[in-house]
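Narrative summary of target 7.
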Amino acid sequence: MKKDNSKKIFSTVCVIGIIISASGASQAADPVSNARAGVASTASLFPQLKIDNLDKCVDSIDYGAAKKSQLATCLEAEFLRQDKQLNFEYKRVRQSTSLRENLWNTEITTNELKKSLLNAQNSWLSYRDNWCRFKFDSASAEGPDVAQQTCLIDLTKEQISKLKDAVLN
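Modeled conformation, tokenized:
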């Protein structure tokens, strides 16, 4: 009986290792796609995780087994929540660019303003992804996945704040 349980545990650890290795190998790809894939593949392995809230998720980690994988799942879920909020705030700013009455520079058209916003957001996304890739590559003892996800969350929260401040109304 013990042998069967240890085989199950070993198999689970191997699956987790494969998931972590696969997510590490694909870190250069889109962080949102990576996070979605990570949460989808690991959340079912850790059904006790409360992934709807970062603090609750971290509090529900079983520190006896695969704690880094569980923490990565919590962080990936949080990043997806922050990315959704980022998209919401970006759309709000984009819609507010139609309200031209309060702008001091009346020579800029709404389309030019929207294009400028799009260029700025794309540049920021490139910066965020590259900087957090650097954090992944240069990670310390906390682990590359944790370093990258924490970076993505922190920078995304900062950008959300900037977008909230940029709403023109």
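The radius of gyration is 20 Å.
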